[in-house]
Automatic annotation (TrEMBL):
Coiled coil: none annotated. InterPro entries: Class_I_gatase-like, Divisome_Glycosyl_Hydrolase, GH, GHL10. The keyword Transmembrane helix does not apply. Gene3D superfamilies: 3.40.50.880, Glycosidases. SUPFAM superfamilies: (Trans)glycosidases, Class I glutamine amidotransferase-like. Keywords: Signal. Residues 81-237 form the Glycosyl hydrolase-like domain. This is Glycosyl hydrolase-like 10 domain-containing protein. It comes from the Bacteria. It comes from Neorhizobium huautlense. The keyword Signal applies.
Length: 704
């Protein structure tokens, strides 16, 4: 029987809406020897300097940083007679800050594993799963009694003993399939399958396991939240949801139990673009439009070799925070180890957090708006193991980067929430490669088109239903104006598509008769009413070099463009243009994606930004004001961090469509802290921004 601490005296001055004023977070993750060495006053000073109004602090789980009374809950051997968790909680509360306790239940020590072998994840050969990085400890089974019973008791004790607003769980979702006897029995009983041997999107057992895991994890979120609220009714349990679009959970329960969300995508890894930080904000907002979301940012590099107690360049830290802020994510920085051997991270974090504090009041109450949305293909990504989903996202990443390069503002919309209201916020939606879509999802898109919406789609979108069965034809065949004539083939080499006729989609290719094609091709028949501005060049050899020439004339639609007859337009590209652009970055593919979007939207963009450089753009609006974030990504190291320094860019020209019956009022640069002039030309207002260093925000008000 697990120990149950006595009930707490509940504070009466804590509101269930505490999270609304928790907009700048410091996270301190203790190392075991910190209690004997760290300086709590240093951290209280960091709270002040960064204007942090919330803190996330290590409490328990693998190691307790307070004097826990729960048997087998390992307490730091350096704690002595101190209470490091309680000390920081008290200091933060004196500053009026909110407090969230972090628990990490992913591992246990050998004594706990020996006493409760059912708490340990089991390998397929029946052995206990020893920790991959620290021998002698064991990985826990997240879907079994360890989380349900033991972690619940830890959460209950922390919430009982300390004045906190939330509990945050990190590494709580498990690490691979645990082949325990209990899991095998429960899974077989509930699904009829044996546990899958490996991650395989085509394996029905894997799909069943992914759904089974999703249900158990969702139930845990609810159970832990109810546990917290039973002691402190204002407080919440908040799970770490990584960088996903919440595809791991039942959305209705997240809606009810998680008032605030956090994205754990801490920094660049390998070849990753600075806009990756803000992309997370769009993805979460694409599912929960109005829910506050924070971006967890590391002060060190986020590479496979870890280096968790290191410091990356200050400009890299600030770019990650700035792009997150621009795309609606409030800032959160995390520091591993309370002792600070290298304090070079402090200044850039202070600067970025203070800038957010200055901008925040000016954009309060505004909503992110855009005319274009990329559909976040959760139904497709669920068919992939979490560690392999990045492969499935290559098409989406290519479209994302192409739109950033083209300076086209856009949002995300999850395919889990494609209601008429959600879809109709946008004039155009992009389906980069939503391979798996249900009949209901296809119908929602078809009805959106019938209401006047426009679509740009590519590759294998809608070729499979939601469970993975290939259709005889695209689920969106009527939308595309195209019918499947043969299954996708690839990978293929040395392919091309030829320009055909005269159409806006072939603008910008002067001097070329053909451009690079895809590596995975689909043969389709286009409707008689559709245009085909690009045709496939039939395959020809890539070696010997003397044989590298086409034998046949171009034939077969490689791009289909049509007016829907309902006021919108559709472009369908039956090959993996997004993936190829992401991997190769050939400008012809970026141009084709931009041309497709520019033509399909059928009008001038509501917000245009012209000038030199690469800029990530975000637009926010209220009834009487607009704010346009401009994040400068221009850098010779743009495609791989860390940045060494910021390269300012020169004058940028903004052209904004005037709301009906309105004229511009005051216009100000929030970062530059200066007013700027404007002029009205027709139904648009034009604004000149003299230059941008790392970030600028143009704020303007409307008058009747």
């Amino acid at each position: 029987m697990l120990h149950r601490p006595s009930e707490a005296v509940v504070s009466t001055d804590r509101s269930p809406e505490w999270y609304k004023s928790a907009t700048r977070w410091t996270q301190l993750t203790f190392a075991e020897d910190d209690p004997d060495k760290y300086d709590p006053e240093f951290w209280i000073d960091v709270f002040r300097r960064t204007k942090s109004n919330a803190v996330c602090l290590s409490a328990g789980g693998y190691i307790a940083y307070y004097p826990s009374e729960i048997p087998l809950h390992y307490v730091s051997k350096f704690i002595g007679g101190t209470d490091p968790f309680g000390t920081i909680v008290e200091g933060a509360r004196k500053l009026g800050m909110h407090v969230m306790a972090r628990v990490d239940p992913h591992a246990i020590h050998a004594d706990a594993a020996a006493a409760h072998p059912e708490w340990v994840a089991i390998n397929r050969d029946g052995t206990q799963r020893e920790h991959w990085a620290f021998p002698g400890i064991y990985v826990t089974d997240a879907l079994g009694s360890y989380n349900r019973d033991f972690t619940t008791e830890v959460i209950r004790e922390i919430v009982t003993k300390y004045d906190i607003d939330a509990v945050f769980a990190n590494r709580w979702q498990g690490h691979g399939v645990s082949y325990s006897e209990d899991n095998q029995r429960r899974f077989k009983s509930e699904t009829g399958f044996d546990l899958p041997a490996k991650a395989d999107a085509s394996d029905p057992a894997w799909q069943a396991w992914a759904a089974w895991r999703r249900r158990i994890l969702t139930d845990l979120v609810v159970y832990w939240d109810e546990t917290v609220k039973a002691i402190r009714p204002h407080a919440s349990f908040i799970p770490n949801m990584s960088g996903s679009s919440l595809m791991e959970f039942d959305l209705s329960l997240i809606q009810k139990h998680c008032p605030i969300l956090f994205v754990d995508h801490q920094a660049r890894q390998g070849v990753e673009v600075g806009w990756s930080a803000g992309r997370n904000g769009k993805r979460i907002r694409g599912t929960f439009r109005d829910r506050p979301v924070g971006l967890i940012t590391s002060i060190g590099p986020e590479e496979e070799y870890r280096w968790k107690d290191s410091v990356q360049s200050g400009e890299e830290i600030k770019l990650w925070i700035h792009d997150g802020v621009a795309q609606g994510l409030f800032p959160w920085f995390t520091k591993f180890n309370a002792c600070v051997p290298d304090d070079r991270w402090v200044r850039p974090v202070v600067e970025a957090f203070n800038l957010h504090a200055d901008i925040e009041p000016q954009i309060e109450g505004m909503q992110a708006t855009a005319e274009i949305a990329i559909i976040d293909p959760s139904t497709t990504l669920r068919h992939w193991a979490p560690e392999e989903r990045h492969i499935a996202e290559h098409n989406d990443l290519g479209f994302y980067h192409a739109l950033v390069e083209a300076r086209i503002p856009f949002e995300f919309l999850s395919d889990q929430v494609m209601t008429p209201e959600a879809l109709d916020r946008f004039k155009l939606i992009v389906l980069a490669n939503a391979t798996y879509l249900s009949d209901e999802q296809c119908l929602a898109i078809e009805q959106y088109v019938q209401r006047g919406g426009s679509v740009v789609a590519a590759s294998e979108t809608s070729l499979y239903d939601e469970v993975g069965t290939q259709r005889d034809d695209f689920g969106l065949s009527r939308v595309f104006g195209a019918s499947l004539t043969s299954a996708p083939r690839g990978p293929v080499k040395n392919t091309y598509v030829a320009l055909s006729g005269s159409h806006p989609l072939i603008e910008g290719y002067e001097g070329a008769s053909r451009i690079i094609g895809g590596t995975r091709l689909i043969a389709v028949d286009a409707d008689a009413t559709a245009d085909t501005p690009f045709l496939y060049v039939p395959d020809f050899p890539d070696l010997p070099m003397e044989e590298v020439y086409p034998r046949e004339a171009p034939t077969g639609a490689a791009v289909i463009a049509r007016d829907t007859g309902h006021g919108g337009r559709v472009v369908y590209i039956p090959w993996n243009i997004g993936e190829v652009f992401w991997k190769v970055l050939a400008p012809d593919h970026g141009r084709l994606i931009a041309n497709a979007v520019n033509w399909a939207i059928g009008k001038d963009h509501r917000v245009r930004v012209e000038g030199k450089g690469i800029i990530d753009i975000a637009v926010y609006e209220s009834e009487d004001a607009m704010a346009i974030f401009l994040v400068n990504l221009t850098n010779p190291m743009m495609m791989k961090g860390p940045l060494r320094e910021v390269y300012p860019i020169g004058q940028q020209s903004l052209s904004i469509e005037l709301p009906k019956g309105r004229k511009p009022g005051a216009i100000k640069l929030l970062v530059g802290n200066e007013a700027v002039s404007s002029r009205v030309v027709g139904d648009r207002v034009e604004i000149l921004v003299p230059s941008i260093e790392a970030l600028e925000t143009v704020h303007l008000t409307w008058q009747s």
